[in-house]
Amino acid sequence: MFWIIATIAAILLALPIGCLFLIWLYIYVYYLSYIARIFQERPLFAINRGQPIEDAEDIWIDGPGNSRLRLCVLPSSGRRRGVVLFAPEYGSNRWSCLDYSHFLRDAGYDIVSYEPRGQGESDSIEGYKPLHWVTDFEVADAKAVLGWMKRRYAGQVSSIGVMGISKGAGAATIASVNDPFVECLVTDGMFAVYTTVVPYMRQWVKIYSRLHWLQNILPNWFYGSLAKACFFMVQRERSCRFPSIEGALRHLGEKPTLMIHGEKDSYIRPVMAEKLHLIVAQAGYATHDFWLAPGARHNEAYAKHPEEYRTRVLAFLDDHLPAVHSPMPVGARGG
């Protein structure tokens, strides 16, 4: 009797699992290529591009491999309080740092801003065209800039702050893991691949399938596994890798973080950003804060609330960056 019951139970359990597998396989075979195409479509972001200023250094540095990266250094207006690496958003240039962080100079911070490969004037990568998603190429570029900053500011600062916008925030966050030179991070509009794509998967599948009732009852892990299959397909096609920002946030250690996001962001919805903040909060290692800027769309927090933005960012950096060892000697600014 026991074996009869056990057999029936096994059959009843195997039936839904088998059905889910067949549905997964059906979507994989007939729809995954469509999902991969949508995944690679570029959203219509309003991209900020700044203009050069006279008292900034505009230089080239060595990047990964034999590449060169374009970089600018904006010195503090007075006695230096600290140094901040600015990681620009997708499609922007190095001078866009002025749109988000010019007030840092007045408060005594040097700003170092750069352009990753394939963006602005930096060298491109043969066969690779950047997307709005963070890849291992952008992470390598951020690490190269951090390496240059360690040499540039050796003996002057023990650590720096990082401020990143959108895609740049993700690349800089991953590059900061296990790097004691990065003391704290400010992110604005940051997003990750997995936590962004999976909620959109239901909509993408609906575009090509009429079985809406079925799509609504499928669990998130089902769409998550399809998303990972999509990532693998695109990685193979584009010869790149999409590193996990979620994983990086779990391994930031004791680095304090300030996450900023627009309440009206229709691209990266607030719930997606809140999931990233929750990952940091659950890790439980460091101070963390999350500001959902009222009425702001993607990367609009500063434009909508300039005074509060300045106050929050400056307070965060002043609290968490150690005092500098010495001011920049006159005439010491060189490539």
Supply the key terms.
335 residues; alpha/beta; Rossmann fold; 2 domains; eight-stranded mixed β-sheet; 8 strands; disordered C terminus
Number of structurally distinct domains = 2
Order of helices and strands: HEEEHEHEHEHHHHEHEHH
Q: Count of helices?
A: 11
CATH topology label of the largest domain: Rossmann fold
What's the number of extended β-strand segments? 8
Strand order of the largest sheet: 1-2-4-3-5-6-7-8
CATH 4th-level superfamily of the largest domain: Alpha/Beta hydrolase fold, catalytic domain
Q: Residue ranges: pLDDT <50 for 5 or more in a row?
A: 6-12, 328-335
Helical content stands at 40-55%
Principal-axes geometry comes out as globular
**What is the strand content?**
15-25%
| N- to C-terminal distance | 82 Å
* Quaternary structure of the protein: single chain
Rounded radius of gyration (Å)? 23 Å
Descriptive notes:
The protein is α/β, with parallel strands linked by helices and 335 residues long. The chain is 46% helix and 15% strand. It has 2 domains: 2-39 and 195-238; 57-192 and 244-320, 3-Layer(aba) Sandwich (Rossmann fold). The chain has helices spanning 2-39, 97-106, 136-152, 167-176, 193-208, 212-217, 220-238, 245-250, 270-283, 301-304, 306-320; strands at 57-62, 68-74, 82-87, 109-115, 160-165, 182-188, 257-262, 288-293. Helix 1 packs across helix 5 (193-208). 41% of the residues are buried.
